[in-house]
Specification:
The protein is mainly beta and about 130 residues long. Helix content is about 10%, strand content about 80%. It has 1 helix and 2 strands; from the N terminus they run H-E-E. Strands 1-2 form a two-stranded antiparallel ribbon. A hairpin with a 5-residue loop joins strand 1 and strand 2. The longest helix has 14 residues. The chain is rod-shaped, with a radius of gyration of 55 Å.
Length: about 130
């Protein structure tokens, strides 16, 4: 029985990972690298067309002077014009406007992004 008890005590000391007062050091390194590539091609075409037609007309009648009407005794009527003038004026505008636009946009955008990270951690202590 003394032998079994002795082996049990010895096995307990051997299976213990650390003894009180034992020092330890832990080192850990990690690395990371990532690459992103982008290739964008642009091809844009725009066509626009505008047509306008317009016309304008103005007419003006102006009367200067005086008109007198007199009745005669024998039943007739007489008209008297005193510096009487009629003015007639007009103007016309007619036009057309045309516009055509072409826009062509093209090109490429290429990008490469590299990201690198390194880290190192060290810890030490006494257990």
């Amino acid at each position: 029985m003394k032998k079994v008890f002795g082996f049990a005590i010895l096995a307990t000391f051997l299976a213990t990972p650390a003894f009180a007062g034992e020092t330890f050091v832990r080192n850990e390194d990690s690395w990371s690298n990532s690459v992103t590539k982008t290739d964008l091609t642009l091809d844009s075409k725009t066509f626009s067309q505008r047509n306008e037609k317009y016309s304008s007309w103005a007419d003006k009648v102006d009367v200067d002077g005086d008109i007198n009407i007199s009745d005669e005794l024998d039943g007739g009527t007489t008209l008297f014009f005193d510096k009487f003038t009629i003015y007639n004026a007009g103007s016309e505008l007619y036009g057309k406007y045309s516009e055509t636009n072409w826009t062509n946009l093209g090109g490429s955008i290429e990008t490469t992004t590299n990201a690198y990270t390194d880290s190192h951690e060290t810890s030490a202590g006494v257990r």
